[in-house]
Amino acid sequence: MTEKDYIAQLFRVRRERFGISDDIYWGWFNPDDGSVEWKTWRHGMGGFANILRPLGFPCDPLPICNENKVPSWLEIFRASKENPRPAALKQINWKQTYAYSPDSMRMPEVALLTREETIALKEKGKNQKLNYSNLAFSALNRVVAKKLVNGDDPYYWFIGVNIRGATNIRNEQFNQVSGINLPIYPDSDAAHWQQQMRLALKSKSHWATWKLANIGKYIGDGGLSLVYRLSTNSSHFAGSCSVMGDWPLPDERNPEINDNRLLCAAGPGTANYPINSSLVGWNGATTLTLKLHPYICENQALIKTLVNAWRDEILRDL
Questions:
Q1: Fewer CB within 10 Å: N-end or C-end of the chain?
Q2: Each residue's pLDDT tens digit, 85-105
Q3: How do the domains of the chain map onto residue ranges?
């Protein structure tokens, strides 16, 4: 039986019927002048393999998760009952919003953590028993909240979760990323961020998201369109955070890296998920990429200011 990418179906329906782009921006960041020649693709981690394999990097096998099967709805229900999670309203009180047109989308901006800074960040995480990504994204949250959000109420971030290896999907190009919604306060630290991450994973929230995202298998394009139209006005998040891995993948066949440019990428976003952020490891260093939707961003300069502030917040206590 031919496999079908139902996540791609969902994105296609949004794109064709609602004009919402699902483009993932990627490029090579030049640390000498800060320039990036941006390109796009529409699928997950397989996109990096498509970029790097022509350059001689095997990228095989792609990283997998530590689970080996998709749980049933009953297993998900039991896990959620055993690991109750705090909730927040799916609304966020932005300080300012703007009218926008589909052709007024903003471009990503990039900041760099050098190899030495990346080592220091990961060492700090190890010493505090925190994942370095939770240190990084909690820093972003504080920067964003101070500049863009009113009040102290919690709101949600969407965090990507790699489920490759558990889905039994054979085509590596298919999207095999799910996600979890984290209720976060404007001043949440990395420990709180990590606590919410662990609780969400224990509750199998990412599997509930995965199953719901694949619902097009049963309701088709028309059903997906109806569900999206009914839900879009009631669900508003700060945005998404993606750990896109450390590249190139370890392999004795990898060619020598003589170019000082670094890989970077940022996921798609909407007015409902207006902030898109990512960490991409390249040759020991890390690129921080930030993209804002014009719904909350008046100009490109704001994104540059915020991505640099994000970097500064990460480095503050290293």
A1: N
A2: 999 989 999 999 999 987 788
A3: 6-315
Buried b (16+ CB within 10 A) or exposed e, 156-168: bbbbbbbbbbbbe
Q: What is the pLDDT of residues 194-249, one digit of tens each?
A: 999 999 999 999 999 999 999 999 999 999 999 988 888 788 999 999 999 999 99
Quick check: helix, strand or coil at residue 112? strand
Which positions ≥6 away from 77 have C-beta within 8 Å?
none
- Which tokens belong to 286? 């890390």
The DSSP element (H or E) to which 120 belongs, if any, is helix 115-128
- What's the half-sphere exposure (Cβ side, CA atoms, 13 Å) at 279? 28
Q: How far apart are the first and last CA of the chain?
A: 52
| 279 three-class SS | strand
Identify the CATH assignment for 6-315 out of 3.30.559.30, 3.40.980.10, 3.40.470.10, 1.10.490.10: 3.30.559.30
253: β partners: none
Amino acid, res. 34: G
DSSP tally for the chain: helices H, then strands E: 9, 9
Nearest to 7 by CA among 209, 243, 291, 231: 209
SS3 290: strand
